[in-house]
Amino acid sequence: MTEREHHTMRLHALDAWVRRAAVLTDADGLKETLRAGAAAGGATVLGEHFCVFPNDAVTGVLVLAQSHLSIHTWPELSLANVDLLSYGEVRADEVMRVICERLDVDHADLTYIPRAVA
After folding, report:
1. Rounded to the nearest 5°, which phi and psi values hold at 43?
2. Residue 63 neighbours by CB under 8 Å, 6+ apart
3. What is the reported pTM?
4. 73 near 25, Cβ under 8 Å?
């Protein structure tokens, strides 16, 4: 990896359809899932904020030293959207693997987008 590649901002966007929609309404469980994913990928968590909506959907974000990890759930669709924006040596594949495992994902689509850093 070149010095420039090492310092590239990357967005990993995961669309994950789960087997059990109830996992998407458990805010405490989702916090633990994101924290476990961040730890597995070597990210440093600096803070967090989670909101539960009237339909029990959850939006949450972990503020990372390397940027952020967020989740938005759609229980009525059995869908979670997870975004990891990272800079540096975060192992995104491990972050997403742990999240998919803990959410008991049936199938998923992962998109990788390099982002510009001035």
Report:
1. -85, 155
2. 45, 46, 47, 48
3. 0.91
4. yes
